[in-house]
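Go through the following before class.
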Amino acid sequence: MRWKYAGRSDVGKVRQGNEDSLFANAEWGVFIVADGMGGHVAGEVASQIVAETVGPGVCEAVQKGLRGDDLEDRAIELILEANRRIIERADSEPEKRGMGTTLTLMTLDPENGYIFNQVGDSRGYLLRDGSLIQVTCDHTVVQQQVDRGALTPEQARDHPLSHILTRALGTEANVEPDTYDGSVHPGDLFLLCSDGLSGMLTDETLKDILSRSANDLQEIADALIDSANAAGGLDNITAVVVQVTE
């Protein structure tokens, strides 16, 4: 199994700084999008801690030959370590107290397909055979209401509480990442993104852009960012596009 990727992070049209972080290592098939939160650039610090702790650590695990459940377990250990580091940093620097971050991690396992580990509302999507599937599930108050049947997905999209998280790294000691895994097929196209993208563009628009010729993945990533900015760019926007080639 081989793959290629492109990624881009953008401050958007409203925010003064970019608190998103992106990590990508094509050699070992490890990709991360993290969306930080907190004042005084604390969100940027939190998302960077996650990217710098989890990304290289998972690459090392893949390099050592960890696969399947062993790789999933190691990824979760690293996520919990990043969580501890964020909390310790906030405790030692009062101006950063309350900082946190989302995390969406995808690892492409040459033997077992894909693995997503996720905390928060940054998303992982899969485009396969013309159908776009949201692989991950948001950890938000509104998503809980959708799960209970109190809101429709359409109502949830524009709900004023849509960005209130129920789970994030740095906010509690015992955070629990969700894990999603599955097989991969040649031609599969994955998207990892912060809510600055998914909150500005409908899934139908995402599918239309991702369905363009995948010969130039950077062109697709740029089109995603540019479209989110054209729709208002209300938040930082990060997108990583990964295509399985064989």
Q: What stands out?
A: The longest strand covers residues 3-10. Residues 3-244 form a domain with the Phosphatase 2c; domain 1 fold (CATH 3.60.40.10). Residues 16 and 27 are 33 Å apart (CA to CA). The helical segments are 42-63, 68-92, 141-147, 153-157, 195-198, 203-210, 217-230.
